[in-house]
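S1.2 Input.
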Amino acid sequence: MIQLVCLLLCFSGDAWQDGNDAYREGRYPDAITHYHALLDSGTETGALHFNLGNAYLRDGSLGRALLHYYRAERYMPYDDDLQHNIQVANQLRTDPQIDEENDAFLRGVDHIMSWLNPKVPFYLALLTWLIAGVASLGLVVLRDKTRLLGYVLVVAGIIAILGTGMSLIQHRHLSQSEYAVVLAAEVQVMAGPSRKESVSFTIHEGIRCQIMSEADSWLRIRLANGYNGWVPASQIERI
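S1.3 Output.
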């Protein structure tokens, strides 16, 4: 059963409440308009994408519903309601037999990242690089008069490297621009970036794919089952 998520945050203006009210009253196009107004104002949370996905699904836009569900998943990858709605929406696809990829390691990393404030890894790396720099300067000034600064330098360096790595992973976690969702009802996947090429296979609305490369207005995509080919960029949207 599709449920509406209530935020514990206070959004600017009345768009959030207006969107929720419109959704409850069955005015799904109005709800979509209010939720998009929040996105346009710079507000972006997992709950907002989740509710927007719910509104699109109720309004009959399966592709856009899954697009916003997957965007919500970047922020709350293990939310039970979200995972349930993704499963329900995928069962409505024309091509439900094409399973989604499930990389256990990356999903574990996403789970850890979902508990962190996006700025934590960045500030951790910045602080420890600063400590390492001060320790290095101290070693130059004091030379071998103390071993403590040497230990501080080693520990700070290790933490700085870990913090930098976490920051990069967090960036990937929040962007994931290499994946997209098919929005058109039916898309012919071509052997090359042109309508003159032969049709390799056909896919339908809601399928998630990986973007492999780009040529003019064409994108080369790869499906979870390994099939790949070229589609017009206008028929899919990046997650």
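S1.4 Remarks. The first helix runs from residue 15 to 24.
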